[in-house]
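Quick one: structure tokens for this chain, please?
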Amino acid sequence: MESSEIATTDSIDSRVDRNIYAFMAVLFAATAIAGFTPNSIAILSGTKASPPLIIHFHAAAMSSWLLLLAVQASLVASNKTHIHKRLGMVSVVLAPIIVFLMLAIKIPLFLDSDFATPARGVVQIKRIGLFSIFYVWAFLSRRTDSAAHKRLMFLATLVIIDAAFNRLSWLPMFGFENVLAVRQLYVLILLVPLLVYDVLKSGRIHRVNIIGSCLVVAFTIVASSL
């Protein structure tokens, strides 16, 4: 293969690499919109009671996170990495806010014996714990391993976006009685495009995606067995 052909192939691979994450960001945002828009419309129209103020703060923080993810992926897709790196520091403030709000909302709920079940407890540990782990890992690897960094940011988002699936009641359960398990597995479907991309690009799934998928599946199995 001539050098010009190699350069062209590398250029195409680079564009695909950048655009897959922009696509994933849109996919995640679309999932959140599909899950939460009906609920938001019901609240705004007055057909459903408005939740406590902290829920609105949580919704704003999560919306900001998804918006930041989409903007960051778009900046990389358009090769504006210098802006991407500066804007990324917003996450240093936003991620702890999200963790704090999740804890502030869930701890009082788990003091209510009617809400507190072992399965729900495992799901919340998954959300808060894995989000924190994946984000910190992503932040630490941002300069030394960009491939891991990108995947970890999406994994961090993946584990907290499962709440959207809880509101997609029209999704088929395929006859399974364990609704929680099926919905958690639906979450993993969001990762499929990235897994396919890994295989097509390098012939194997990136280690970060393997670790992330295994952790999500492990938490799902534990929660489903309780």
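Residues 1-12 have pLDDT under 50 and may be disordered.
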